[in-house]
Structures are given as structure tokens and as C-alpha cells.
Amino acid sequence: MSTLEIRDVDLHYGAAIALRRVSLTAETGAITCLLGRNGVGKTSLLRAVTGVHAVSSGKIMWDGQDITRLPTYDRAKRGIAYVPQGRDVFPLLTVRENLETGFAVLPRGRRRLPDDIFDLFPILKTMLGRRGGDLSGGQQQQLAIARSLVTRPKLLVLDEPTEGIQPSIIKDIGRVIDQLAARGDMAILLVEQYFEFARNLASAYVVMQRGEVVLSGRQSEMDEATVRTYLTV
């Protein structure tokens, strides 16, 4: 079973410290939700996991291997996929072309679009020839998640997938995340601000404040009132 282990990670932006001795575990078949207000370090932690920003100290272990100093491309080849905040869809590429950018980390023999992507996001099958920039925000979010799934990830990292999305699409995205976890072949690390969305999905949760982990545990152990105190402005 593949497991992400983050051990005592510090991360700086210049002289400013964004993460202080952060530790957490995300296991295959589970959804680990990272909660907290804006600016507490959630996105910085995802950037550390995916190699977008180097950590100052600590270790990041994936599938029993130390990946702390590996570049982003090598992490992607090891099965780590990232859906960033803001989606980063290529606006001038078609939906099909956006999906095919996921081929970059795959060997030639596996460069095809999996059928299950269109089972999860049937709307995309009808839009393969449309440009990414012509899609609605919710459709772009579905495309961004689908693009990450083209790489056949073992770890799916999602940064606020519900941001700016209409309620009906939020439900669809929640359903897809739940189905992916139920398959039992990937770990999911999800950053979310909406407590209700996270509570309904989480197997485990981690709450951050000022760059540090202040609460963590299984979803069944979550004290809703206490968690909410770290989410309200």
C-alpha cells in the first residue's frame, strides 16, 4: 500500500517561514482533508509535496522512498498528480489536447485516454473539440481533474476543487472524489475551505494554523465545533 509521509517539514519564501515542522500521513484508499483559513500554509504544503517549491528541512516520503529533493517531473512519473487552485487549464487547447498533456509522464505504450475518465465526467466526452477557455468554471475544474487522472496517479493532490464552482458541480466533484477513493488504488490529499464538503468526504483530517498542524485525526474522531474555530474568520 502506497503512503505519503511528511515528516517535520519547514518551508520558507525568502526569510518568511510558511511551514513549521509539519507532519502528516495520507494512505491509499483514503481521503485526507487539509483544512484551515486562507494563508495558513495549505497550498505551500501541496507545493512541497509536488516539488513545486523546495522544503527547507524535513522529509517527504512516498511509497517508502525519499522524494524530498526530486524534481516535479520525477514525482509525476512516480504517480503524483496535482490539480492546482485555479485549475490552470490551457485556454487555447481543445479539451482533448488538454487531456493529452497528461501523456508527458507516461511511456508510449500507455498514452491513451482511459475510458473511465468519461464515465466520471461524461460532459467532457461531448466537448472534446471545444477549447478549454470556452468552458465554464465548473467544466474547467472537471477537465483539470480528468487531466490529472490521465497520468494514472497513485497520489491525487487537489487544491480547493470547489472554489468558485456552482453547487451542482460541487456535488459532482464530491461524488467523483469519493468514487476514486473507493477504488482503493490511490491516496487523495485534498485542501478544502468548506467544512461540510470536507466532512462528508474525509477519511482523515489535518487542520493548520499559521503554518503548523494544530489538529489531526480520523474523521470519526473529528470534533466539529473545535475544527470550526480554526476555519471561521
Structure description:
The structure is a single chain. This protein has 233 residues and is of the alpha/beta class. The chain has a domain at 3-83 and 153-229: P-loop containing nucleotide triphosphate hydrolases (Rossmann fold), CATH 3.40.50.300. Helices cover 32% and strands 27% of the residues. The chain has 9 helices and 10 strands. The chain has a 6-stranded mixed sheet, sandwiched between helices. Strands 2-1-4-5 form a 4-stranded antiparallel sheet, with helices on one face. The radius of gyration is 17 Å and the shape is globular.
Write the layout of secondary structure elements.
Blueprint: E1 3-13, E2 16-27, E3 31-35, H1 42-50, E4 57-62, E5 65-66, H2 72-77, E6 80-83, H3 95-100, H4 115-120, H5 122-125, H6 137-150, E7 155-159, H7 167-183, E8 187-191, H8 195-201, E9 204-209, E10 212-218, H9 224-229
Parallel strand pairs: 3-8, 3-9, 6-7, 7-8
Antiparallel strand pairs: 1-2, 1-4, 4-5, 9-10
Cα-to-Cα separation, first versus last residue: 38 Å
Structure classification: alpha/beta
Count of strand segments:
10
CATH-defined fold name of the domain at 3-83 and 153-229 = Rossmann fold
Give the name of the CATH architecture of the domain at 3-83 and 153-229: 3-Layer(aba) Sandwich
Question: Which whole number gives the mean pLDDT?
Answer: 94
* Gyration radius, in Å: 17 Å
Specify the overall morphology.
globular
Count of DSSP-assigned helices: 9
**Low-pLDDT ranges:** none
Note the run of SSEs as H and E. EEEHEEHEHHHHEHEHEEH
Biggest sheet character:
6 strands, mixed
Q: Kindly provide the name of the CATH class of the domain at 3-83 and 153-229.
A: Alpha Beta
